[in-house]
Amino acid sequence: MQPLFLYNTLTRKKEEFKAISPPFVGMYVCGPTVYADVHLGNCRTFISFDIIYRYLVHLGYKVRYVRNITDAGHLESDADTGEDKISKKAKLQQLEPMEIVQTYTVDFHNVMAQFNALPPSIEPTATGHILEQQEIAQEIINKGLAYEVNGTVYFDVEKFAKDHNYTALTGRKLEELLENTRDLEGQQDKKGRLDFALWIKAKPEHLMQWNSAWGKGFPGWHIECSAMSTKYLGEQFDIHGGGMDLQATHHTNEIAQSIAYCGKQPCNYWLHTNMLTVSGQKMSKSLGNSFLPSELFSGNHPLLDKGYSPMTVRFFMMQTHYRSTLDFSNEALQASEKGFDRLMESHKTLQTLIPSATSSEDIKALETRCYEAMNDDFNTPVLIAVLFDAVRIINSANDKKLSLTQADIELLKKIYQHFIFDVMGLKAVSENSKSMQVLDKVVNIVLDLRNKAKAEKNFPLSDEIRDKLTESGVQVKDSKEGTAWKI
């Protein structure tokens, strides 16, 4: 078997993967903060690591895949200021914080299931590991790299940086960070501008707080990952992943506090996914160019010509390497839809091929090319190109333009099973799913007619359409962002 190479963000080099304790692999991926609907940037990250997880398992590794749920400690600002996002939402909706957590955790799991992403081996929560986070903070204090002021525990970045490269992950200079970090109001308790909170004193009105040696408070965002990765994967593990937006603050601080705690680099390979753009622009709610998965599936968004199945979207996300920017457009999605359909149709054709006595194709070489693509830092675009060579061969064999033996056909079936279904995680769209896609289109056509009636101030017709849809089991909801619907 060829060696597997992957790009390590920490060293900025492509390195041969060598597990710490083969055949076991520990992989930790920063999971969602469950206070809002899962967005496509999250989806791309988790789908990318789902493929990486699947491929490692396919190679024969026993993978412990840990993906956390952030349900406490994520403030409105990375500067340890503002309100906890979950607490804030709970107050606005007059709910318990754990109701917010449960709602969005369930939604996240549903979205991941639609994308056919496998669940992780362990999915720990920040609130389930408060003691572990307190223990790490206390140990870092004991080692002289953290200090407590008025019930809040801060990590001393400049003291840590005297003996360690604090900015190793990003390659930036500490001096530049200090120059570009302004003094923040309310941060006078910190010794240094870059110091970050391991534990934060809770105000009386703060909904989520726990007892500690420093008084009532709650954990900082960064320490949760150090606590959970250490507990389930040990002081050193193989792979740590997440979106590239986490590098500069979250992962940089995570590395620092983990080294301060146990004196070791927490993991051997850091992998980061790149961002999503729309027609070259960064995907952003304020620009109106961000999509929820449900909007992408239904087509109910001003920038979409139609809806796309979850498998089409998953396939689309593999068209670009996980470390490269992925640009959304209707044209790109429609091309992916056609490509996905071609793959599925060729799989049907493959089942009906009649073998020849001789072969005119080297299918073993094609299989080798599939492994070469995935062993080159999980290069799905190259893998897809190889698989479309397989599509060409299958269609040509079906048209009697080339010949395949029974062994060739069996190997092609194996390639399809291993790479299309097992590794890429694609699955054929059922007839029921196709019916739902048709329903999506029909409902959106009806809603367009309703919106036209509203624009023409024909409110009786607009209300009648809404009422008829409600009677048919389609719930319509109008908001400032537009009209949404669900069954």
CATH class of the largest domain: Alpha Beta
Strand residue percentage: 5-15%
- Low-pLDDT ranges: none
**Sheet having the most strands:** 4 strands, parallel
SS-based class:
alpha/beta
Rg from Cα: 25 Å
Main sheet: strand order: 4-3-9-10
CATH topology of the largest domain: the name is: Rossmann fold
Mean pLDDT: 92
The structural domain count equals: 3
Shape: flat
Total number of helices:
16
Number-wise, the strands total 15
Q: Write the CATH homologous superfamily of the largest domain.
A: HUPs
Describe the structure.
There is one protein chain. The protein is α/β, with parallel strands linked by helices. The chain is flat, with a radius of gyration of 25 Å. Helix content is 46%, strand content 14%. It folds into 3 domains: 17-273, HUPs (Rossmann fold, 3-Layer(aba) Sandwich), CATH 3.40.50; 277-423, Anticodon-binding domain of a subclass of class I aminoacyl-tRNA synthetases (Four Helix Bundle (Hemerythrin (Met), subunit A), Up-down Bundle), CATH 1.20.120; 431-486, no CATH class. It contains 16 helices and 15 strands. The chain has helices spanning 40-58, 85-93, 97-114, 130-142, 157-161, 174-180, 221-233, 247-262, 293-298, 310-317, 330-352, 363-375, 380-398, 406-423, 431-455, 459-471; strands at residues 5-8, 13-16, 24-29, 62-67, 146-149, 152-155, 196-201, 217-219, 237-243, 267-273, 276-278, 281-282, 326-328, 475-479, 482-486. A hairpin with a 2-residue loop joins strand 14 (475-479) and strand 15. A 4-stranded parallel sheet has the order 4-3-9-10, sandwiched between helices. A 4-stranded antiparallel sheet has the order 5-6-7-8.
